[in-house]
Amino acid sequence: MQPPVMKKSILKREIKSFIRKIDHQSGHSHLYKDFQLLIGCLDGSDQLSSEERNYLDSLIQKLLLETEIFSWRYPLWSTRCLDCAHILLRYLPESDRDREKMTKKASELLTMFVSGPLFSEFSRTEYFKEYLEDACENHVDTVWEIAAGFFRGSAEGRRPRFAEEEIRLFNLMDEGYRLAIKYLDATKDYSHFSDWFSILSPCWIASVLEQALDWTEARFHDKIVGLLQKTLDKQLSLLEKWLDGDP
User: Fold this and answer.
1) How far apart are CA 127 and CA 119, in angstroms?
2) CA separation for the pair 181, 176 (Å, rounded)
3) Phi/psi class of residue 173: alpha, beta or left (left: φ > 0; alpha: ψ in -120 to 50)?
4) In 10 A of CB 3, how many CB atoms?
5) pLDDT by residue (tens digit) across 208-217?
6) How far is it, in rounded angstroms, from Cα 196 to Cα 176?
7) Hey, how many other C-beta atoms are within 10 angstroms of the C-beta on 146?
8) How far apart are alpha carbons 174 and 180 in whole angstroms?
9) Got the DSSP string for the chain?
10) 233: how many CB neighbours lie within 10 A of its CB?
11) CA 79 and chain centroid, separation
12) For all residues of the chain together, what is the average pLDDT?
């Protein structure tokens, strides 16, 4: 086992190295590999020194700033920075003077992603998954808006696409459908169907399906057609629930 001093020197070095890579914009790949190394060091440290807390504070603030600055130009970088900041906040003690302020800032940025065009990227992060779980359990009145975010992501761009992209878009649609049903079962509130169907369009999906049927030589033709048919079925199912509940 390494002596405590050695552990602490390694942790300080890893935090400084991570800050330096962000300063030099080394690319978002290090936000996966190098970040996991940093988390391993934090997990192996029983208690942070005041110097280490200051370094960690600086790193989190930098990640939050990167999130805000690059949210439109580099969505992968921005969403991953916010996810990293959220995870690192757990390692700061409650007594840290900047912890509450940074937690509030992270929450504000999360709201921006949930209601904005970068939702599809952000929905893959650990931060969002925790947010969604909390919303489903404690704030079900907000679930309709999260469902709308998934619907927006599922309806973006020209269609049909190749199988990999159609799978991704169907998964977004499927998750939105699941949340819409959950919201409806919990609240019996039909008022947000108009919001959902300002995004969804069974007629458009039906026309996309017709185009896909003509892709006779396309790879994974049957897979693409099947996904679009399932999408159409789910949208029609939602329309039927709207008609039954709020004619």
Assistant:
1) 12
2) 9
3) alpha
4) 8
5) 999 998 876 6
6) 10
7) 25
8) 10
9) ---HHHHHHHHHHHHHHHHHHHHTT--GGGGTHHHHHHHHHHHT-SS--HHHHHHHHHHHHHHHHHHHHTTTT-HHHHHHHHHHHHHHHTTS-TT-TTHHHHHHHHHHHHHHHHTSTTHHHHTTSHHHHHHHHHHHHH-GGGHHHHHHHHHHHHT-SSS---HHHHHHHHHHHHHHHHHHHHHHHHH---TTHHHHTTT--HHHHHHHHHHHHT-TTSTTHHHHHHHHHHHHHHHHHHHHHHHHH--
10) 13
11) 7
12) 89
Which tokens in the block code for residue 187?
Answer: 């609240």
Q: What amino acid is encoded at 71 in this protein?
A: S
- Give residue-wise pLDDT tens across range 121-147: 899 899 999 999 999 999 999 999 999
Q: Which of 26, 209, 217, 238 is nearest to 150 (CA)?
A: 238
What crossing angle do the helices spanning 99-114 and 75-89 adopt, rounded to 10°?
140
For the entire predicted model, the pTM comes to 0.80
> Alpha-carbon distance 113 to 109, whole Å?
6
Contact at 8 Å (CB) between 202 and 239? yes
Nearest to 119 by CA among 145, 138, 137, 93: 145
